[in-house]
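Think of the structure tokens as a kind of shorthand, similar to the way a musician reads notation: each symbol stands for something richer, in this case the local conformation of the backbone. In the example below we present two proteins back to back. Begin with the first one, reading the sequence and then the tokens, and try to describe in your own words what changes along the chain.
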Amino acid sequence: MQTDLHEADSIMDAIAPALLSRLESALGELSSTVAQLRAAANTDSRWPQQEPREYLSVKQLAALIPYSEQTIRNLISAGEFKEGLHYYKRRARVVFRWSQVERWLSERQNYNNAGQGEEPFYPVHHARSRKER
């Protein structure tokens, strides 16, 4: 039993340097490949940045602008977004027109930069009163 362990240790001592050098060369090759891929990803035009589509759902719009889905719905209720201009209702779903939303955002940015709109927009919630019985 003792000799078997001794033989296994001597075999490992013989194999270890070769195995270690192979692992080190593979690791170096991998790191250079990763560096090349990162450089190519920054300059490669085969995968252009995807432009937003012209017509977007509320969820898609919320991913593109700094407002949540609920805030967008509140902006609709408050009249900030106009039906027929900024959005359309199609089969009981709201569909936004990206070009008009971009224009609205830039107008809003210009208004805020002019010093006229220092305060952020807070949509007003108009609570419904209970029906009397």
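Once you have a description of the first chain, move to the second and do the same.
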Amino acid sequence: MARLTAQLVTAKQIAPQRTITFLWGDEIISTGRYIRDDSVRAKGIKWGLSLDMVGEDVQKTGGSFLIEKMPDPSAIWTRGMTNIPNGVALY
């Protein structure tokens, strides 16, 4: 994602209006440290996106695919189309 973002910015195909920072590390501990280490920087953070094992083969890793929309805990889907509740629209 970082490489693609850099390519798009360099090619002037996107022009972010805010700084985009990519962190590599444990999603909870590293994010917390990044926020705690600089209170001025922390004030400017608008949102974050945590991607864990993106692109991994769940059959090989034994992991699961989970999409959550917080704070609504009922908005959770796991592994494939068979577990999506009836009536839920996919866009």
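Compare your description with these statements about the second chain. The chain has four helices and two strands.
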